[in-house]
Amino acid sequence: MAKYDAVFFDLDGTLVDTAPDLAYALNQVLLEYNKSPLPLETIRPVASDGSPGLIKLAFGISAENPEYTSIQTRFIELYRHHINRESRLFDGMENVLQTIEKAGLKWGVITNKPAFLTDPLMQALKLSQRASCIVSGDTTANSKPHPDPMLFACNASAVKPENCLYIGDAQRDIEAGNIVNMDTLIAHYGYLKSTDQPETWQAKATIYKPEEILNWI
């Protein structure tokens, strides 16, 4: 008998390795501003932080800077155009999804990525029709770590939070899952920073590769 009725995933850094395409778009903007591109390994730990974190990394500015909006607009434009250039499921994740599906369980995505980026990526990877729900950062009034997206996903999938497993690579993921009484796993293979302290996030456990999810379902 399955332990859970549904398994939910964060998107960037948990289900899909999107860092290469985010890095490509960011480096194209840097080149347009006559700045040197950054190595992927420098960008990867910030890939879950969206355009604000990536722009701060590359340009050292925040939203208050007069140049921020134009840089962000260009970055998003380039990323949308190259959203599926190299992005792929993490190694082993397809087997995890197939195992979940064969067990008759539901799976879905709960991400802070806005829908205008989430939806085309999920479609390009042929995941949209397989997921029981896709909850983006603007699907509900509040994004993670607020519990609203988690509860929306449960309602959309007709499951109770306490019967769900949520996997994410950021503290906000674990906080959001814990608030609604989901079991939570830290995807350590994702985009954790060297300054992160996942041992303090109060997750059920930490996993180091997607296949370890199978030990929980």
Automatic annotation (TrEMBL):
InterPro entries: HAD-like_hydrolase_sf, HAD-like_sf, HAD-SF_hydro_IA, HAD_2, HAD_sf, PGP-like_dom2. It comes from the Bacteria. GO terms for cellular component: cytosol. SUPFAM superfamilies: HAD-like. Keywords: Carbohydrate metabolism, Hydrolase, Magnesium, Metal-binding. Pfam families: HAD_2. GO terms for biological process: DNA repair. Gene3D superfamilies: HAD superfamily/HAD-like, Putative phosphatase, domain 2. GO terms for molecular function: metal ion binding; phosphoglycolate phosphatase activity. PANTHER family: PHOSPHOGLYCOLATE PHOSPHATASE. NCBIfam families: HAD-SF-IA-v1, HAD-SF-IA-v3. This is Putative phosphatase.
